[in-house]
Task: structure prediction
Amino acid sequence: MSKEAQLSTYLEFLRFASVSTDSSFTPHLRGCAEWLKARFLKMGLKATIHETPRHPIVVAQNEHKAGRKSLLIYGHYDVQPVDPLNLWDHPPFEPHIDGDKIYARGSADNKGQILPHILGVEAYLAQHKELPLNITFLVEGEEEIGSPNLKPFVEKNRDLLKCDVVLVSDTSMVGPEAPAITYALRGIATCEIKIKGPSHDLHSGVNGGGVTNPAWVAARIGAQLHDENFHVQIPHFYDDVKALADWEREEWKKLPVQEKEVMEQVGVDALYGEKGFSYYERVWARPTAEINGIGGGYQGEGSKTVLPKEAQVKLSFRLVPDQNPERILDHVETWVKGLKFPGCKLEFKRGHSGKPYICNPKSPIMESTLACVEEVFGDKTFLIREGGSIPVIQTFKEQLGADSLLVGLALPDCLAHAPNENMSLRNFFKGIELCQKLLTALAK
Ligand SMILES: [Zn+2]
Result:
């Protein structure tokens, strides 16, 4: 297939408005799944659409033969909503090309990163007639809403999805000349604390100073999460945290994007966090406690002298190996229940959670993947962790016993989830090349 034909396939894929969270887009997700199935069939693979309570999962395979290694390639065809639409320079589902960049919702996350693997397999087949591996493509339509139906699907279809290793391009490179392979992801645990005080809002003159103010309690809880070194103060929080290896610290010191660039990216004049750790160490290999929302009392214009009857704090914890989200929430709950504020009741509610993931970055398969990436991109390739969470990676590990090769093709400024999402066309085409190299390397 010519480069032009590959590009026009990409454009077709991007034109589906496959926004998974909004049910009015359901026909577009269906259309996109059908389009994928047709693509796979055209390549000579077997392809099936598996129904779920919401958006379908597409599975495609070559003929699996005994004695060959098995590779599962995972991606998602759904995208985030486009709001605010007025901040897009071009309509989000009418892809626009400007130089090396292609702008569209889903261009990077994840259509422009799964498609290179589909086109890579297609190119390999066109050249060699036969694939060197047993391949399974698993492309879902619910990643952006937390993959509610993927875990049960994987559990039910362990034989179908059986593999030695998983290949996923849904992470990011460090910079245009700094590809990266991600070998660890942080987990997550979330909760909400409701603080209930007096039976109704009180007058701050009549009752102020005589009754505990729930908004003050919310602030106290937030303030007590960390000590002055930004160390989390919840007892047992660090019990299962694995220490960073020396080589990790050394590798990350060499990254082309350092603290100065991060400050520019996020728009602050100083970084801050746990004492004794660099920025990358803190966001990739250390756990956090964050306030994601805090509220109570009057939020409108001007002042209103009130003691609110209730307040709330929403917390999330990013977790590292070997922390367990449920055990962490147990520790948080015990800590919250031990806080005493006269006249106030604290209610603790657990939210969603996901385990952290790590694989051996120095395994032979990781080393040969690294060599392929370096050869295709011609740049030193970094071994990194990521601060975010992709819960399905842990599901693959638990259900299929397979580690994941997380080879990101997107650039850090791809604006995933935001207006003007974009993808580097160079990386898109390099991805097609990389997939073919990997097929050969992983078959060995
Ligand atoms: Zn996403």
Summary: Residues 425-443 form the longest helix (19 residues). The chain has a mean pLDDT of 96. DSSP finds 13 helices and 18 strands in the chain. The two ends are 26 Å apart (CA to CA).
